[in-house]
Amino acid sequence: MSAEKADYAGFNEGLCQFLSQATTPFHAVRAMAERLESAGFQALSESESWTLESGGRYYTTRNDSSLIAFVHGTEDPAESGARLVGAHTDSPNLAVKPVPEHSSGGYYRLGVEVYGGVLLNPWFDRDLSMAGRVSYEDGPGNLKTALVDFRKPLAVIPSLAIHLDREANKQRSINPQKHILPVLGQLGEGESPDFRALLRKQLLLEHPQADVATVLDYEIAFYDTQAASMVGLQQEFLASARLDNLLSCYVGLQALLSADNTHTAVLVCNDHEEVGSLSAAGAQGPMLSSVLRRIAGDEESYARLVQRSMLVSADNAHGIHPNYPDKHDNNHGPVLNHGPVLKLNANQRYASNSETTGLFRLLAKQVDVPLQAFVVRTDMACGSTIGPITAGETGIRTLDVGVPTFAMHSIRELAGYRDGCDLARVLGQFYRHPGAVVI
């Protein structure tokens, strides 16, 4: 195997391991924190005083589902600015409702709420598991939280047979209230389903030392148990759940781990992007500004830092679909494995401008990575990212980029085996390159 192929293979092996761990935003943050600590990053609590050392490496979390990691550069951040990469930890899913139990026909089913813009059809007939965060009361009456992940197939949403819906291949209408309740099993006569009892059993299984008196509440979501895998005649594609946007979280993490101590380098991975970002842990919340203020030290230094900084918002881009080429602008249809994508929109659905895209093109040229550009068809609506939101909240110059992807927001998405690794190379250059931000 050539050195280049070995680089791509190693990157994707690590990515697949991360995707397997990161079944929810809570688990994604835990997986990133473990990798950061192994690399010498020190955990900080937002509720405590911070003493930051020049050249130090740190991270902090909020709500267990958002994370900011940073290298406190030896150069004064107010003079050299900060180089930031942003992504989001959440993906569209089916979230278990507060009172979820259904027992119609003797089948144990759970009511779910659609989180984000889910493509519902692919959720049928898949082996599903559950994961998330649970709040519970311990024996002495204290509030505790813990993560759970059942890690095995325990539910399915069966399709209706075509014999009972002859028009299914022409027009299929899904009512999310009635048709997407996962089936967990069958109930015996007189047996009543108790979801909290199921969670308590799983808590004790995963945390045998925990004193779990009562399960108080939870944030639990279903996920597909099929592992990430390389597919294609030449293994040129990566197929997995949650590529949008855990792929970018992993790319940003790998780039940050390669950063030196000269410049202040920041990775911000927010929760709640798929539902608008307006939360304490979302990009439209105060988390990033709060951390940057603490890095700067005072308001004057913070104002200078903002004006000398740049954010690269990394979120997946739409690859031109070979079966639906008419859904793309002919001149702006990214191809998988042909390089990261600059995302542009004149109406500011993406935050890129000629200055930020120009800098990224320069960085990509320096590490010999090809780039592509995406503009949505003029007669179609354009999606958005944390880029414009973060730019609006902080005033930091921002660029939107991403890895070209098929089937975005499906239960299983597809990306090229080269593009994530190539994006990590450019972002590593962004973190390390002298004078890359102050223009």
UniProtKB/TrEMBL annotation:
GO biological process entries: proteolysis
Keywords, ordered alphabetically: Aminopeptidase, Hydrolase, Metal-binding, Metalloprotease, Protease, Zinc
Cofactor: Zn(2+)
InterPro entries: Peptidase_M18, Peptidase_M18_dom2
EC number: 3.4.11.-
UniProt enzyme class: hydrolase
A molecular function GO annotation: metallopeptidase activity
Keyword check for Iron: no
GO CC annotation: cytoplasm
Family under the similarity heading: Belongs to the peptidase M18 family.
UniProt-recorded name of the protein: M18 family aminopeptidase
Gene (name only): apeB
